[in-house]
Each structure stands twice: as structure tokens, then as C-alpha cells.
Amino acid sequence: MQIKSIECYPLRIPGHPYCGGHDTRKNTGQYGDYTTHAVYRAIYTMNAETLLVKITSDDGVVGWGETQAAITPHIVAQLVNELVAPGYLGQDPHDYAVLRDRAYDRLRDRGHDSGQYVDAISACDIALHDLLGKVHGKPVHQLLGGAYRQEIPCYVSGVPAVSVAEQADHMRRWQEQGFNRFKISLGYGVKQDIAHMEGLRRELGDEPTFLVDQHWVYDLNDSIRIGRAFEALGIGFMECPMDAEIFAQYGKLCAALDLPIALGEEFRTRYRFKERIDAGALDIAQPDIGRLGITEGMRVTTLCNAAGIPSAPHIGSGLAPYTAASLQVAAATENLFLLEFQPTQID
Description:
By secondary structure, this protein is α/β, with parallel strands linked by helices. The strands form 4 sheets. The chain has a 5-stranded parallel β-sheet, with helices on one face. The protein has a 3-stranded antiparallel β-sheet with strand order 1-5-6. Strands 2-3-4 form a 3-stranded antiparallel β-sheet, with no helix packed on it.
């Protein structure tokens, strides 16, 4: 069996913005269809964007992959077509790890370990796993070694609201459906963040587990101040409060707090995770399968498991192949903490 064709489908869904693009009152700059936000430091789309990749074998089996191309998916498609696909065509899909590593190596001096080039590789990697699952008539987690669990513990992410009361009402509706873990996007200031979480505790009591995402906006001192207040509120983890690059500071933060520190959504290789693990700079890893792919994602969870670090796979903006790949990795991850659930993507 050989790979016969690779086709790209960059998608844009108008008027369906994700996360930082949804609240135009807080947008600070416009770059065509993209915007910057008063708090969230990355650029966001005013639509919903992603890239689907279709790989077909010479005997007609089709696999679908997706990368988290939340902006400019047409650029990622061009990278697939011009730099990734030529190395995959004519090859055996079972060699997915070798194909992934060779594609990674080809751009060794051209930004090979991050950014949209790795996203292009990851979309193809997910598609190959989907194809192989169909070839063998098995769910992908069985190809990865089996499922450690039949049910995946999840938290609800992206609960938009203008006020604490409105957000609490959204959460109550999710509680009625059986969910009791929620991630809240913060980063509006030390006092504001603490007051917001105090308000949610008053509204919903001690039963829900709250997780917080602070979008890389604080320094070490403010992160410690917020973290200590969050410890008293029983917060489950604090996600990326500081710049991810300053992992020595993260080591100090992890040592100063009992509150678990989570990060890793933007990392695209196991090497970025290993640096943080060696520095004692994270308590919970957040591999994003839409950026890592399944092959590298499993390498990350294995690395973290060996270090005693639980994994909580991150899910951002995307469609079914991205979510399905994340579920398969979560099932096959021994030391799983939680999986992110993005209801706005399902809707």
C-alpha cells in the first residue's frame, strides 16, 4: 500500500469567531480578517478557520487530518503541498513516524521546530492514522497500544460571558448535562482575576472544579500573588500565566505554589516539553494534538508519564478530525488528567 494523493482544504466559516475574536469591544487592532485583543496576546480571526487534509492510498482508502490552523490556513495548505506532500507520496502509510521525522528534518535550519510548518506535518500525520485505522478496521487508540479508559474526563472550555452572573448561568446549564469542570479565560489584572473567581465561587459553591487560563500576561510576582489567592479558592490549575519562553521563572513559580501550573499548548515538539520538565517548570502538560500530530503527541505523553507529569491535552479552534484525534490520544495516554472540550466547535 502506498500514498497516492494528498489534498488540502483550507476552510473559513464567516462570522463564527473563536476566543479572542468574539468580543469586538475588546479588540485593539485590525489586520484584514484578523484582530488583536486587549488581553489575549496572540492574533485571532474574526471567522473560524482551519485546514483539513485528505490522504488517499493507492487502494482507495481515505484518511482525514486537521491541524489547528486558526489563522491563514491557506498558508499551511501551501506548506503541505510544496514541502510535506512530496516526501509522503509513494510511501507506505505504516511508516508514519519516519515520514513525520524526515519532513521535520528537511527544514532543520528554516524554523523546523515550531510554527505553521510543523502544523502542516501534523495534519498529514493525523490523516495517516485515520487511514490506518480504516485499513485495519480498528480505532486509532488500538493502533497506539490500547485504551487506558473507556470514558474520557473532560472540562468545558470557552464559556463566554460579560458578567460573573451570566457565566455562572452558562455553567449551570452544563452542570445539568453532567459537566462540572470549567476553564475560565482571565488575564484582566490581579485584582480583577481574583474577584472574578471569588464571584464564581459565591455563585456556584464548592462543587465545580475551576481551571483558569491567563494567556501569558503576568510576571512572576503577580503570578505568585494570583496563585496564592487561587489556592484558597480551590482552583484546579493555572494555565500559562507568564511568557512560555521564560521557563526558569516557571520553575520558581511551580516551587512557590501548591496550585498546579499547566502549559504547553503552543509547543510543537517533545523537546520543548522536556526543557520545562528538566527545569521543574510545569506541573501539568497540555499537548495540542492539532499542533503536534498523533505521533509526536504520543511521544510527549510518554515523556511526561516517565517524569510523573500528567497530561491534559489542549483543544482550541477546529473541527471533527482534530477533536477525534485528541480523543484517541487521550484514551491511549496512561497518565491523563483531563481533556479540553470546546462546545463552540461542536455547535
